[in-house]
Amino acid sequence: MTLPIRIAPSVLAADFSRLGEEVRDVVEAGADWIHLDIMDGHFVPNISFGPDVIKALRPHTKAFFDCHLMIAPVDPYLEAFAKAGCDSITVHAEAGPHLHRSLQTIRALGKKVGVTLNPATPLSVFENVLDDIDLILIMSVNPGFGGQKFIPAMLDKIAAAKAMIGDRPIEIQVDGGITTDTIGAAAKAGANVFVAGSAIFGKGDKAAYRTEIETLRRNAETARA
Ligand code: DX5
Ligand code: ZN
């Protein structure tokens, strides 16, 4: 099953003093999804923002809000992120002992269900929940910070995830160190959703965001074809 290439800029690299404008600009520049990185200073060694910021951003765009929760525990906060306006909610398999319960909760809240894995976590943790998810996020850096280097060993992991899902219409997302240089290999391996923070927002303004998003998309499509 071939799903569309989607470019998902992470607002972690945006100018936080004018987030609404940044989100509008990047959507006008061609972004498919907006990736929202939530960090708690406990599961990951950094703190970002919470559901109230997402709620404040929601009126600025109709774009799909793709929420990546790097928090533990996660279950007590799922409803708040759903109510804030997230369209998908992705949880770390490492965040708690009851992954299936977290996935059921997200489904019951009416949101797309995502699971993600740190680089060192094997794919086997979700082989028993494949029929309960819409998205698999392969972390290609250790989560917590933008601007890190892509870990090349994650290419084999993407390919193995692609093989594992079979015909299921599950999105395969990759997050961390995606640039115009690394996106092709990730697309070739089987990913179709590409998170990029510094590669896009680091470029400065809307015109530059557009050029970068176009190049990312072209490189992914060329590598896949
Ligand atoms: C890392 C986050 C990423 C990060 C990606 O913990 O999950 O989404 O913002 O940043 P870049 O694209 O700069 O590697
Ligand atoms: Zn992320």
- Tell how many strands the DSSP assignment holds: 8
For the record, what is the CATH homologous superfamily label?
Aldolase class I
Estimate the mean pLDDT confidence.
98
Largest sheet, in brief, is: 8 strands, parallel
Could you write a compact summary of the structure shown?
This protein is an alpha/beta fold and 225 residues long. It contains eight helices and eight strands. Helices cover 34% and strands 19% of the residues.
Task: Kindly describe this structure.
Its cofactor is Fe(2+); a divalent metal cation; Zn(2+); Co(2+). This is Ribulose-phosphate 3-epimerase. The chain has 225 residues and is of the alpha/beta class. The chain has a single domain, classed as Aldolase class I (TIM Barrel, Alpha-Beta Barrel). It has 8 helices and 8 strands; from the N terminus they run βαβαβαβαββαβαβαα. An 8-stranded parallel beta sheet has the order 1-8-7-6-5-4-3-2. Strand 2 (33-39), helix 2 and strand 3 (64-70) form a beta-alpha-beta unit. It starts with 5 loop residues before the first strand and ends with a helix. The structure holds D-xylitol-5-phosphate (DX5) and zinc ion. Residues 10, 35, 37, 68, 175, 195 line the site of zinc ion.
